[in-house]
Structures are given as C-alpha cells and as structure tokens.
Amino acid sequence: MSETLLRTEGLARHFRVGKLLSPQTLHAVDDVNLSIDRGEIVALVGESGSGKSTIARLLARVYKPTQGEIYFEGKPLSRIRGRRQRLAYSSDVPMVFQDPYASTNPAYRISHGIQRALHLHRRDLGRKGRAAETDRVLDAVGLVPARAAARKFPYELSGGQRQRVGFAQALAFRPKLIIADEPVSMLDVSIRIGILNLMSELREREGVSFLYITHDVASARYIADRVLVMYAGHLVEEGPTEAVLQRPKHPYTQLLLSAVPDPRAELGVADKTDVGEPPKVVDPGEGCRFRARCPYAIARCETETPLLRLLGQRHRAACHVAAADADLTAEPQLAALTDS
Amino acid sequence: MRFVVRRLGFFVLTLWAAVTLNFLIPRLMPGNAAIAMMSRYKGHIQPQALHAIEVAFGVNTHESLVHAYFTYLGNIARLRFGISLTFFPDQVTHQVLQALPWTLALVGITTILAFVLGTFIGLISGWRRGGMLDGTLPPLFVITSAFPYFWIGLLAIWLFSIKLGWLPESGGYDVQTNVAWSWSFVSDALTHAVLPAFTILITAIGGWILTMRNNMISVLAEDYVRMARAKGLSSWRIMWTYAGRNAILPNLAGFAMSLGFVVSGAILVEYVFNYPGVGWMFLQSVENQDYALMQALFLLLTVAVLVAILAADGATAVLDPRTRDRS
Amino acid sequence: MTAVTAAEPAATPGPEPPLGAARRGYGADLWNAVLRNRKALVGLLMLLFFVVLATFPGQIAPYNPQATDFLPGLGPSRAHWFGTTAYGQDVLSQVIWATRQSLLIAFAVGGLATVLAVLVGVSAAYLGGIADGTLSLLTDVLLVIPIFPLIIVIAAYEKNSGLGMLVIVLGALGWSYGARQLRSQTLSLRTRDFLESARVRGERRIYVIVCEILPTMTSLIVATFLGAALYAVLAAAGLQFIGLGDPNSQSWGTMLYWAENNEALGAGMVLWAIMPGICVAALGAAFALLNYAFDEISNPALRMRRLDRPIDGARGDAVPAVPPAPDRILEVRGLTVAYATDGDPVIAVDNVDFDVARGEFLGIVGESGCGKSTLLYAITRLLGPPFAGEIMSGHILFQGRDLVSLDERQLRHLRWREFSVVMQSAMNALNPVLSIEAQMRDACKAHSNMTDKEIAARSREVLQLVSIDPIHLHSYPHQLSGGMRQRAMIAMALLFTPDLIIMDEPTSALDVVAQRSLMVQIKELQQRLGFAVVFVTHDMSLVGHFSDRVLVMYAAQVAELGRTRPLFAQPRHPYTRALMEAFPSIHGPNARLTGIPGSPPDLARPPAGCRFAPRCPQAMARCHEGVPPLHDVEGDLVRCVLYDKGAVPEPTLVQAS
C-alpha cells in the first residue's frame, strides 16, 4: 500500500504587484491540495504562468505559503524551527532546476555543489567520505568516469551533462523527494529522453519520489504515475496518467491535449483554434478561471469556483460541467466533451 | 504622470540631502574654522544677520539642533544665504547671480556641445565599425578622458597664450572694456572663452564618444536591427531610428551620472583661467574662508546638476515609451 | 583579403579563446584574457612602471627631492633632466618621489570605494525589498550630488588635512557608481538557478553572497576598482592643485600647486608644471586603459573578428548551368557559411543544397548548434553581428537571381516586397521604442509610395488577418503579450504579401496552446495567400502537420530531405529515425525510449566521415572513411552509407526501403 510522503492543504501563494497607491494581488497559486506518495513520480503540467513553478518553490521552501499548509511525512512545515530542522527538510526535498546553463556556478568545478551539499547535510562524512560520495552520485547519474567529471568546469560540459550534475547534487542529499522544475525543457530533443530515463531509474534504484514539473504533456505521460493539471493558479484536474490523457475531464485539459503536436496524427487546418490566452490572475473574484475561453461555460461558472470532484478512479476535475465516468455515476453526459 | 512625479520627488530628496549635508558638515568637522570666520564678521554686520550665519554654521548658538535646522531650512527656502565675506558687504545671493551667467554660457554650452558632438561621433564610429574614424578616435579618447582638466588648461595657456600669444590667458573679459552689450565686449568675452571652452570640450567629449560607440555596437547586434535590415530599410533610417535611438538611451542615463564629474572639471578650468564664473568664485570663497558664499555655491551646483538630470530624464521619456509606462 | 583582420588597431594579436574556454579556472581565464588584450597589456605595463617608481624612489631618483641645493629655475640639462624648481629642487627627483603618494591614494581609495560598492550594491540587490529601496536611493542621491565640490566643502573646513582624511573622504563618496553597476549585475544573477540552488541547499545568506555571487562578478569588481582609482588620482591631483591638502606633501598635485603659484610656465620652468601633469595623466590613462579593456573582455560583442575570405570569393563562381526552374522560388546550391573564431573558422553550414517550390511549406529541423539559424540568415543575407558568419561559397537563387552576388542596395529592393522574415523572438525583433504602426509605416515607406492613409488601412488589414484588434496599431511592443507580438510580426511580414516568408522558430517562445493556434493560422494564411514558407524549428513534431517537405540538418549538413508524410512514416537516416523515437507520444502504447547517446559534435572539430557515426547504432567502419554523399532514394535525399548503391546493402534496410 502506498504511503503519502507529502501533501498540501489549501496551499496558496499571492504576490503583491502594482503600485504603492493601487496595490494589487497576483494569485500565483490558490487553494491547491496535492499529495505525493513514496516512490511515486507525479507530473505537474501547465502553461507558463499557471503557477507550477511557484508550487515547486513553495515545496522547496523558497517561498512561504500565503495560506495553507504543507505536510511532509505527516508533519506541517510551518512547525519547522531552527536551522537544523530546515536543513533536514531541504535535504529530504531537494530541487533540480530548469536551465542547465544557469544551475551551476560558472566560477566553480562541478563538484562544488555536491561537496557543499555533503558539507551542509552530512557532516559525519570526512574529506574522504565526501570524495567517495561525490564519485558515487556522479556515477549514479551516468557521468563517468566520475573522478574526471568532478574536476570539470560547467562550460566544459554539454547541456545534458549539466542537467545530470543537477540530479547528482540532489542525490547527494539522500533525498526522499526530488522536485524537478522543467528539467528537460531547455535540452535538445535527442538528449531529453536520457534525462527522463534517468529519473525513472533513480526512482527504481534509490526509491526517490519525483514531482516532475513540465509543460510537455507527452514527457509527463512517459514517466509519471499521476498527472496534475494546473491552470491560472488552480489545480483543475488530477488523476492516473492514462486516465487523464485518455479521458480528460476538464475542458482546459482537453484543449491542452489537442494542442500537443503529434506528427503521427493526421490533421486538417480546419481544426478549431483558440486565440485566447491564460489570464493574469490579479485580484480574481469567484468563478472558474477558464470560463472566458471555455466552450461549455454556463452561468454557474461565473459565480462559483468549481472544486475538484471525483469523476473516475482516483480521477478528479474542477469543473461544473464535466461528467463522471459511466462506472462512477449513471449519467453519461460526457460524450460531447471527450470526443476531441 | 507618475514618472514625472517620481522624478520630481527624487529631485527634492536629493536637494534636501545636499542642504542637510551643508548644515551638518560644519558641525561635524573638527576645528573651529567657522568660529574664526564669525569673528571676522563681528562688528561689521547687524546682529540679526550675524545670528542667521551663526545658525547656519552652528556657532555661538544655544538653540537645539532641531530648531537650528529648521531655522536654517527656512533661510535657505527664502534664498537667504547671508553676507559674503569676500565681497563684503554684498549679499551672497547677489554675488552668485553675477557669476551665474558666465558659467552658464561657458560650462553649460560646452557641456551640451560635448555631449551632442560626442554622441554623434560615437554613433558614426559604432555604425562604421572598423572604419577610419573608429580606428583612431576611441583609443585616443580612452587616454584623453583620463587627463586632468586643469592640466590641459595649463598646457593650453602655455601654448596658445604664452608661446603663441594668440589668445588671452585668463579672465572672462578685458578689464578695460566696458561691461555692456556692445560688440567689442561680446567679442572680447568670446575670445576669452575660447581656451576654457576648448579645454572642457576636449576632456569631456571622450567619455561620450566611448560609451556611445559601445552602446551602438551592442545595439547593432540586436534582433530589431537585423529585422530592420530584413525589412529593407535605408541605412540612414536603421542608423538613426533603430540603432541610434536605442543606443542613446543608456548614454542619456550616463549623462546624468557623469555630470558631477564634468562640473568638478569645470570648476578647476575656471580656476585655471581665472574665469569669473561660479566655479572660480567657489574656490575663491574656499580660499577666503567665506563659508556663506561657499554653501550657496555648492547648493547652486547641486541644483544645476539636478536640473540637467531632469532634462535628461525628460529626453529619455520622450525617446523611450517603456519609461513612460513603467512607473 | 588579408588574414583575420581585427577591427581595432589595439585588438587581440593572435588566437584567443572566448572567455570561459580555457582549461583552468575562472580567475586564470580572466588573467589570460587580460594578457592577450593589447590595451590591457599597455595599461598594465604603465601601472607597473609607476609601481616600480613608487617602491624604489630612493634608488631611482638622482637627488633628494626636498634639498634646495641647486640654482632655481634651471632649464632641462644632463644634470637635471626636467630642470629645477623656483626653490632650486630637482624636478625629476620630486616627480619620482611623488609617485608614491599618488599610487597610495589610487589604491587606497580604489580599495575602499570597491569594498563599499560591493557591500552596498550586492546586499541591496540580494536582500531586496526595503533594504534595496533604501540603499539604492542612497546610491542614486550620492551619485548625482556633485562629489568634487562636496569634497572641497569638506576640505575647506579642514585645510591641510592629511592623506588619511583625503582617502577616507574620496573613498566614502566615490563608491556610488560602482555600487549601482554591481547592484544591477547582482539583480540579473539573483534569479539565476545556481543561486536558487544554493539557497535551496540551505546555505546561509552570507555564504551565498561571498562565495557564490562575488566570484562570478570578478571582472565587474575589478572594473569598479579601476574606475574608483582613476577618479581618485584625478580628484586628489585637483584638490592638491588648488591648495587643499598638505602643501608640504610630496605629490604631483602639490608640485603643480607650487608650480602654478610660481608661474612656472611663464617663468621658463615649463617642465616643472608639465611633468607632474603628464604623470597624473599617464597613471590615469593606465587605469582608463585597463578599465576599457576589462569592458571589452567582459563584453565579447565589443571585440570583432573577420574571416579572411568573405563573399567576394563566391561571386566569381559561375551560376550553375541548369537554368532555374520556373516553379521553384528558391534554389540553394552548395551553400557554405563559416564563422570567424579565435582559432580556425568554424563551418556552420556545409555545402547545403535545397529548393523551395512556389507555395510550398518547407520545414528545416535540427538541434541547437546544427547550423539551421545560420542557414536561414545566410539565405536572407542577414549574417552580421552578433553572428559574424560569412558565405564562403554557393548560390542562393531567388526567383532566378543569385542573392549572393547582390549588394545591399540591390537586396533592399527585394526585401520585404519579395521575401520577408519572421524571427524567433518578437520581443527582441520589434524595435522597443517605436509603435507597431510606426514599424509598419517604415516598411511601407521603404518600398512603396503609399500615402499615410493607405499605409494605415493596409496595417489594419494585416493585423486583422492574424486576428489582432487594429487598436493595437498604436501599442508599443512591450504592451502586447507574447502571442500578440509574434502575430504582429507575422502581420508585418504580410504587408506586401511576399512570395516567400522565412520563419525562424516563430512559435518556440510560446506555450503549446498558443503555439498550436499560431501554427494553424500560419498554415491557413499560406493556403489563402499562396506564399511559400521556409520554417526553421528544433521541434520536429511541429512541422509534421504543416510542412510539405522536411529538411533534417545535422552538424551543418543536410542529413535527410524528403516529403513530410513518407519521412515521418518511414524515416531513412538513422538520425531522423532516432529523433522520431526520441519523442514520447500522448497516443499509442507508452513504450520505453532510448534517445540518442552522446551529444552533437563540436563544429570546430567535426568527426571525420559521417558526422552522426559516433552516435549511430548502425555505424560501421565505412562510415568513418569519408562524408557520405546524399543518396537519392525514391526522390528523397539521404546522407547515409546504408543507401550506397555500390555497397552491400544492410539486409534489414533493404526490406525497409
């Protein structure tokens, strides 16, 4: 039976924007409830500005939540006190960043980040222990020979290799959950799969969970057990990967899936297009944030923010209109929605 | 509008900082230069005027610092700077107003000229990268921009006045001519202004050329310049509207920042040439320990720089729509 | 033409690696770059000269500088190179002894101001919020208050103040410029992932600032120091010259003060007044040269390189014998483009041939660094800074005219009317200071006699074509969203409904949904208006739906060129096949993929033979022997020995084809 490693309750993060005299609040993340099990890879999918990177930074404690709570192994993060507890959490939940060209300090050899991580989090290791551990993690991410790799400067490595360094740094913590924020989006297509495979392997071998944050639905499908879809700061759909991809409930998920380029599929220009754009969520009122672009919007969408509802096996969507799978309820109204 | 309000706010704040520095420095400095000065005033001016000076410099006063500060601010706001020692018993304000036109004419015009000319040369030099102009001027001006203004002035006097005798070596006009709007006076004043103007121009222009050239080169690598080429626009249009207009924006900001440097150079130039402007008077006041005059002149210099910066801000706002929107 | 001509006379002699390419660390790198820059070297030598003078004045100076042993006012002679002062002192000895104080002031003030600038600038940017607001306001205020007069005011109350006072005042007032620059540099670093990574790791703030931020800003910190030192030399000399400062101290400024007071210039003691000034100027110039050189080193755009064989070489070639086919709008023949680097030129486009038919949509696909963008800019004759590539050989026949042989003026008549360009990032490609309308008007005025009214009408029309409300004509680029900017740029490309539009990843900065709708729109417009499209992208799946043919580039060469549908259904080149298999799909079974091992080759050192061979699962000995030619397989082209007619065919592939 799977065991919950991390979960959030009503997580929200707002940023103050605007001027001194007319302050406004940007709702980057609102009321997000998510959970990640031990050894699970969860993909968080959304467009830029949807709040997915904010979630990553909330979980990594770069930002403090405006509202809500994060529970790690059952304990609320707001109770963390003192440097020691903070360090303990950051070694349990490290982060891998998007831009491999910016995620390593150009002034240092690539062993620097790993060594610092070991220095901060595993004080029991001596100099030799640290060197051995550096070799081990570099080896684990496929940078071989590790000894030679450790002595290189970032500019001597390719983008893919640098991203592996990012994972090696994360591994040095002996983590339980790695937050990977768009780790492949800036890499060339031919090396992306290698990094995705690396994540699966690390899950298998080291038992690490992953929160894989991406805008690329296809890569999410490739490695994730579950998918969470974000739109304009809200979690609009979540469920097992195949269920979400094959039977998307939320109209936004459907739009997103229909936009994924797939060279193998036939397509005519007559295909419907959507020239709308995700809203900037500044001082939002009640209501579904997708309603302006939604072809199925009804009056209720204007006034009431939809909450996640169970619509299939472990499959939820936040939509007033979407209907449940036939095996859950007896109302098969969904045909009209899912045919795209 | 917000932009204007914010810049004016900055203007006031900086002015306030300068005024306050003026108030604090005599109180913070060790020694009793101010007391020495006061004793020279005693018996020569009315007690009320003396008291104002005492407040300004924190001498012989039992008033609290705060009270003194506000009295001082009040005097400044009414432009009451007291009586000049150097030009006793003339009012400081009157003396300053006499010197101001000379400096405005000399330093003001040459500074603007240096900026305009330097920016233009830099623009051409960056545009024709690797050409004749670009090969000679920038390296030359890297070096001249490091020359001390006053030394260039000394050299110019030595060469053009003493050796060649072409131009007068000091002063703003020949003391024998009548100060009036006559042709003889104006031409005499212009003759006297040639060497100092040349000195300021030659030392100030280098910085503008260099920064403009480098800005131009960075801007030429931008996509919008490539796009302008792709559109088949004329070189002239690309150079001015696409490259030049964008390259001049950082130069305007730089203008604001290095103006203080130009002003300090100009003070020394006026000193070297005994030019009857604000800078020369400023150093005279320092020499004569005429602190009332010195304070007023320092504030005047600050205001002058601030006004120039506001003008540069205005130009930036006209040229760059982003500035108008941002704030 | 001459070999590698450097633009500036004082530019780098000999080969020079770009910053960050040396084998050793960051500091060593900077040092190498300094030594290779002629301006920096001259500055360094001048500085060294003064340091030697300042260190051993007793050994170098011929006389005691203060001794009034000689006749006053002597001219230059063998005994007194620079003559004597009005007090009978040797000028040369005085100049040498004075070096010490000037250097001391320069270094002390430079150091103090740099420390303050770093403290204020970096912490303001890193801490942000109120701390940043306060500190930057302080910096800005100090920056505009005229410092030199302020120093004079301070010095006026404390005449004859000592060296220490001078240093403290100059240092305490001279940091603002550097602080401002360091702040903006730190701000740009602040969101860099490696700092976030350090924070997430749990590093303390002070560690992040000192050990993570500062080392990456070495060159800016050095520049701050040099700028402050230059300012200190000039300010100190100025103050001493007007008599503020100890009149008995030994410094160049004080010497000038005494020379001026004794009217040295008029009284024939010219060198007394000139030599100290020359020294101030030379020391200042040393700092200025170093500062300028550092600017050049940290901003590579300021350096310039050229190839030894530019376009003229290609002009002499005869246009190919085959007359241009009327249905082809563009024919590229044997196009080769090279970049000048510090070492050998890098061939970024290697002998590329392809055609585009009227109304055709050709996709050009390749990974980063494969030369696809260079190819595009070569075709449009837009190579130039920052990509200093040059066409080495080949022809670009556009509607029968060879673009390679046209000069800029002739090209201008074709541009935008006959072919237009859409760039990758509209944010950068639109002029930020002109409204959309003004940029459209510029294009119209350059190529037609349209009246303002007609231009406005046409601009509105093309905006409507790409579903933008014409109200945005008056908007500036920064006021539009990313998707709208991109559409506006496409609208601009349509102004004259050209026959060919060349697009460089116009959708890659957009989200999938926006990307999709823009692609559909482009395709729709193309079908409606009938122009041909050359569409460059790194995303193979993007062109799958929209292009008629696909050209796959790998390491500067054409790997495969074929009709889209068959190519996607049955890729022939092992690279194309591997690429297709590197894409996870949202349809079909979720099979495990392997990707392509290794990474694309460095174009400065391409592998001999087939360039894909080192990563190819089907590579054999033959692959390394020479670059395989393009084989015609059923009308499509493949560069792979597997399709070599003379060779023994691979059994599996015979079946496949």
Write the layout of secondary structure elements.
The complex is a heterotrimer of chains A (340), B (327) and C (657).
Chain A lengths: L3 E15 L4 E10 L2 E3 L3 E5 L6 H8 L7 E6 L2 E2 L5 H11 L2 E2 L14 H11 L5 H14 L5 H5 L8 H13 L5 E5 L7 H18 L2 E6 L2 H7 L2 E6 L2 E7 H6 L4 H9 L39 H5 L5 E4 L2 E3 L17 H4 L2
Parallel strand pairs in A: 4-9, 4-10, 7-8, 8-9
Antiparallel strand pairs in A: 1-2, 1-3, 1-5, 5-6, 10-11, 11-13, 12-13
Helix pairs in contact in A: 3-4, 4-6
Chain B lengths: L1 H27 L4 H9 L5 H11 L7 H13 L14 H36 L4 H13 L4 H15 L19 H38 L2 H8 L4 H38 L5 H10 L3 H29 L1 H6 L1
Chain C lengths: L25 H11 L1 H18 L1 H4 L30 H37 L1 H16 L2 H11 L5 H11 L2 H15 L2 H9 L3 H9 L4 H24 L10 H10 L8 H29 L13 H4 L12 E12 L6 E12 L3 E5 L6 H8 L9 E10 L2 E2 L5 H7 L4 E4 L3 H4 L6 H12 L4 H14 L16 H12 L6 E5 L7 H18 L2 E6 L2 H5 L4 E6 L2 E7 H6 L4 H8 L49 E3 L2 E3 L12 H6 L1
Helix pairs in contact in C: 2-4, 2-13, 4-5, 4-7, 4-8, 4-11, 4-13, 5-8, 6-7, 7-11, 8-11, 9-10, 11-12, 11-13, 12-13, 18-19, 19-20
Describe the structure.
The complex is a heterotrimer of chains A (340), B (327) and C (657). Chain A has 340 residues and is an alpha/beta fold. Helices cover 33% and strands 22% of the residues of chain A. Chain A contains 12 helices and 13 strands. In chain A, helix 3 packs across helix 4 and helix 4 crosses helix 6. Chain B has 327 residues and is mostly helical. Chain B is 77% helix and 0% strand. The radius of gyration of chain B is 23 Å and the shape is globular. Chain C is of the alpha/beta class and 657 residues long. Chain C has helices at 26-36, 38-55, 57-60, 91-127, 129-144, 147-157, 163-173, 176-190, 193-201, 205-213, 218-241, 252-261, 270-298, 312-315, 372-379, 408-414, 426-429, 436-447, 452-465, 482-493, 512-529, 540-544, 564-569, 574-581, 651-656; strands at 328-339, 346-357, 361-365, 389-398, 401-402, 419-422, 500-504, 532-537, 549-554, 557-563, 631-633, 636-638. In chain C, strand 9 (549-554) and strand 10 (557-563) form a beta hairpin. The model of chain C is unreliable at 1-24, 308-321 and 648-657 (pLDDT under 50). At the B-C interface, helix 1, helix 6, helix 7, helix 8 and helix 9 of B face helix 5, helix 6, helix 11, helix 13 and helix 16 of C.
